[in-house]
Design brief:
- The chain is mainly α and 140 residues long.
- It contains four helices and no strands.
Length: 140
């Protein structure tokens, strides 16, 4: 803290011995040491408080940055949710129109196509006439 060398301390001691006297010098030295210790503890305490405030300020800054980032993420998620809801509404509208078209009676051409498909499946399921003729010849 102080840049005092040995010679300077010796000079201060001699001046103090001459000014104060040899009888009161030990008590004054003790009192000066006590006040010097208090001053040193006070300086250490102030230094610790300043460092603590700097760390707290740094943490507040980090917290504010994280809060801004969180807010931007919330906005992004909210926008994505709105887009999904919009697309879901379009899909449900398409589903509703499809359901309505299925509920409507089929047109005449659709009915004809359906009956033709049924007849084709019935023909495929019936046995062929050649197999029936062969089977009748084998049986006496």
């Amino acid at each position: 803290m102080f840049d005092i060398g040995f010679t300077e301390m010796m000079l201060i001691g001699i001046v103090a011995l001459v000014v104060i006297g040899p009888e009161r010098l030990p008590g004054v030295a003790r009192t000066a040491g006590k006040y010097f210790g208090r001053l040193k503890r006070f300086m250490t305490s102030v230094k610790a408080d300043v460092e603590q405030e700097l760390r707290a300020d740094e943490l507040r800054q980090i917290l504010a940055d994280q809060q801004r980032e969180l807010d931007s993420l919330k906005d992004t998620i909210s926008d994505a949710g709105k887009e999904i809801e919009k697309e879901a509404g379009a899909v449900s509208a398409a589903g509703a129109s499809l359901a309505e078209s299925l509920d409507e009676p089929a047109s005449v051409s659709d009915q004809a196509e359906a009956s033709a498909a049924v007849e084709e499946s019935a023909v495929e399921e019936s046995p062929e006439p050649e197999q029936d003729a062969a089977a009748s010849k084998v049986k006496p």
